[in-house]
């Protein structure tokens, strides 16, 4: 039996699932052809390398692959063709291409398990740090040729040593597995989740800007906060939680080290608070907001019934509201700021970025779709009009 070779190319994470014994030939062949249209004949070269243990050139690999597909259709009846490509490949390479005298193909499930174990963490099933850094380097090299951003999120369980010490290492291992499941449930296809080390995780989120990455991380934070981990009542705060920091390419840096250091720095700030996702831009906008309590009307779309809410703060880019309705992150709201509560009638559109419940009220953080001009003038006139109305 040939020794399996690890997948190392930029498309390797997409080839890996195809090596499972459960993958039918129709899906295997179609997916390999799709990847080859994007990455070229190196895809065929890589697949033949891991399936046979032998190096062929990219062009020769493509020719052998096509020949083996045609050979499979000839020697197997349709009812057997779903599992016939692997033996047909070896038969073709031996008797038609003359590449082997006594070939033995690597058994699919064995190859899948060996290859998978070289890039993943055994406890959580997430990718490991070594593989993550390779993927990050490749992503940065690819993004330099495009205009799309991507986000990196670092997550770290709060007071996890205390959880291990008081609840036991078996419970600690189970908590890590559960956290990994919660993380994966909140990701899209194509996102990369990593056990970076110990109780720290990393997320690589392609084609996401900071606000969207914040929403993803916040969903994960809420999922872990609300999960009932065994014996978590033994912790000082009675709850196992997680904190996180975000960096974005290229704003936070253009190299792997810069991106990682930026996310790690924001994670450090988050750990000072605990149970939060820290984002520099979110924090900067929060600090620039002015506390203002006044009536604001909102609706989920134009033409809907407007409901009253109370503003908590406002900036040129967004505002906070306290209301009774539970809204969802990502929703677009129509806002009305009307007289006499505001010095003029203003109509705005805003996106719900954060939702937090406190007692009977729901507090939401909004981002305006267009910046609010002349904020200082607006607030000065509002203060004057409210003072006049109170006389």
What brief labels describe this structure?
Thrombin, subunit H; 6-stranded mixed sheet; Alpha-Beta Plaits; alpha+beta; disordered N terminus; single chain; 391 residues; 6-stranded antiparallel β-barrel; elongated; 13 helices; 21% strand
List the helices and strands and how they pair.
Elements: H1 12-15, H2 25-39, H3 42-52, H4 58-75, H5 85-95, H6 108-117, E1 127-128, H7 129-143, E2 150-157, H8 160-167, H9 169-185, E3 192-197, E4 200-206, H10 210-226, E5 242-249, H11 256-273, E6 277-278, H12 280-288, E7 290-291, E8 295-299, E9 307-314, E10 318-323, E11 332-337, E12 346-358, E13 361-368, H13 375-389
Parallel strand pairs: 1-3, 5-6
Antiparallel strand pairs: 2-4, 2-5, 3-4, 7-9, 8-9, 8-11, 9-10, 10-13, 11-12, 12-13
Helix pairs in contact: 2-3, 3-4, 4-5, 8-9
* Assigned CATH architecture of the largest domain: 2-Layer Sandwich
Q: What Rg, in angstroms, do the CA atoms define?
A: 27 Å
> Structural class of the secondary structure composition?
alpha+beta
Shape: elongated
CATH superfamily of the largest domain: Reverse transcriptase/Diguanylate cyclase domain
The secondary-structure element order is HHHHHHEHEHHEEHEHEHEEEEEEEH
**Percentage of residues assigned to helices:** 40-55%
CATH fold group of the largest domain: Alpha-Beta Plaits
How many beta strands in the DSSP annotation? Answer: 13
Mean pLDDT: 81
Can you identify the CATH class of the largest domain? Alpha Beta
């Amino acid at each position: 039996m040939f020794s399996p070779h690890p997948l190392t190319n930029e498309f390797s994470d997409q080839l890996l699932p195809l090596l499972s014994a459960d993958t039918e030939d129709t899906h295997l062949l179609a997916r390999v052809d799709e990847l080859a249209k994007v990455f070229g004949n190196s895809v065929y070269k890589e697949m033949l390398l891991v399936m046979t243990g032998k190096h062929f050139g990219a062009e020769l690999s493509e020719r052998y692959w096509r020949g083996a597909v045609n050979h499979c259709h000839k020697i197997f009846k349709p009812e057997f063709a779903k599992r016939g490509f692997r033996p047909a490949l070896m038969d073709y390479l031996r008797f038609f291409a003359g590449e082997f005298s006594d070939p033995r193909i690597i058994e699919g499930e064995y190859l899948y398990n060996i290859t998978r174990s070289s890039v993943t963490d055994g406890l959580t099933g997430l990718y490991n740090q070594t593989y993550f850094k390779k993927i990050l380097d490749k992503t940065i090299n690819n993004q330099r040729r495009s205009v799309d951003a991507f986000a990196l999120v670092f997550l770290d369980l709060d007071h996890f040593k205390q959880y291990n010490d008081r609840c036991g290492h078996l419970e600690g291992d189970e908590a890590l597995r559960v956290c990994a499941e919660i993380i994966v449930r909140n990701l899209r296809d194509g996102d990369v989740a990593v056990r970076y080390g110990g109780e720290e995780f990393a997320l690589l989120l392609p084609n996401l800007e900071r606000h969207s990455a914040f929403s993803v991380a916040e969903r994960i934070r809420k999922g872990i906060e609300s999960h009932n981990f065994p014996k978590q009542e033994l912790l000082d705060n009675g709850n196992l939680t997680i904190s996180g920091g975000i960096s974005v390419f290229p704003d936070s840096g253009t190299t792997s080290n810069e991106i990682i250091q930026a996310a790690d720095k924001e994670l450090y700030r988050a750990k000072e608070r605990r149970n939060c996702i820290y984002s520099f831009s979110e924090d900067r906008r929060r600090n620039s907001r002015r506390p203002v309590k006044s009536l604001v009307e909102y609706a989920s779309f134009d033409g809907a019934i407007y409901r009253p809410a109370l503003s908590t703060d406002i900036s040129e880019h967004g505002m906070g509201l306290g209301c009774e309705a539970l809204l969802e992150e990502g929703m677009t709201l129509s806002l009305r700021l009307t007289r006499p509560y505001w010095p003029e009638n203003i109509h705005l559109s805003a996106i719900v970025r954060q939702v937090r419940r406190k007692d009977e009220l729901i507090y939401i953080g909004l981002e305006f779709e267009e910046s609010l001009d002349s904020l200082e003038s607006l607030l000065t006139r509002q203060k004057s009009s409210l003072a006049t109305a109170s006389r």
